[in-house]
Amino acid sequence: MLIGYNQICINPTKPTIHVGIFNEKNPILNVRGDLYARCLRLKSDDHNLIILAFDSLGISKDIQRIFESKIKEVIKEDVTFIFSSTHTHYAPSLCNVNNLINVDQTYMEYTVKKVALMIKNCHLVDKNIYVNYSWEQFDHVGKPRINNKSSDQVYGGVLSFYDDHARIGNIVFYNCHPTTPQGYANYFTSEFPGSAVERLIRKYPKEFFIYLQGADGDISTRLNRRSNNYDEITRLGNLLALHFIKLMNRNANLKQRILTIDHVQEQFDVNVQLKPYKEILSDKLDQYTEKELIELSFGEKFVNVMKDKIIDTQTSVTFNCLDLAGYRLIFNPFELFSDYNRYINKDQTLLVCYSQGLIGYLTQPKNKHISYEYYIELQTEEDKQNVISKIKAYNQKSFFTK
Question: What are the two backbone dihedrals, phi and then psi, of residue 194, each rounded to the nearest 5 degrees?
Answer without folding.
Answer: -65, -40
